[in-house]
């Protein structure tokens, strides 16, 4: 139950961050994977859709998963192939790593 409450808290934190501190609008949660949560965003200036992916809070102390998350970002930055999303930006929100990528 505690993990669910932490994830809900970070969901609200992400939504607030997107709406108040970026040029994006929060649309919806897309899904939850083994170590991350994905959200659909709309860029207010271009009208393009993007995806914000963040690490689940239960994995914050797992160094190996942090490395995998960063490796995923690095791979997306290095690959330039149609239908593979490009990373728009990355950062941390209260120690939770995230990145925003193209919606494909």
The average pLDDT value, as a whole number, equals: 89
User: Count of DSSP E strands?
Assistant: 5
Decide which structural class fits the backbone. Answer: alpha+beta
Q: Please state the overall shape, judged from the principal axes of the Cα atoms.
A: globular
List the total number of helices: 2
Describe the structure.
With 104 residues, the chain is an alpha+beta fold. It is 35% helix and 37% strand. The chain contains 2 helices and 5 strands. A 5-stranded antiparallel β-sheet has the order 1-2-3-5-4, with helices on both faces. The longest helix has 20 residues, at 2-21. The protein is globular, with a radius of gyration of 13 Å. The chain starts with a helix and ends with a strand. The mean pLDDT is 89.
Note the main attributes of this structure.
single chain; 104 residues; alpha+beta; five-stranded antiparallel sheet
Give the topology.
Blueprint: H1 2-21, E1 24-32, E2 36-43, E3 49-55, H2 63-78, E4 87-93, E5 96-102
Antiparallel strand pairs: 1-2, 2-3, 3-5, 4-5
Q: What's the short version?
A:
The chain is 35% helix and 37% strand. The protein has 104 residues and is an alpha+beta fold.
């Amino acid at each position: 139950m505690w993990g669910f409450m932490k994830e809900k808290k970070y969901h609200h934190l992400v939504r607030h961050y997107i709406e108040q501190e970026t040029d994006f609008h929060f649309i919806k949660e897309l899904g939850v994977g083994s170590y991350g949560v994905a959200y659909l965003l709309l860029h207010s200036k271009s009208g393009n859709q993007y995806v914000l992916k963040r690490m689940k809070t239960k994995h914050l102390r797992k160094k190996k998963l942090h490395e995998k998350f960063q490796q995923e970002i690095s791979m997306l930055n290095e690959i330039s192939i149609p239908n593979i999303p490009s990373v728009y930006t990355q950062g941390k929100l209260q120690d939770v790593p995230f990145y925003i990528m193209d919606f494909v």
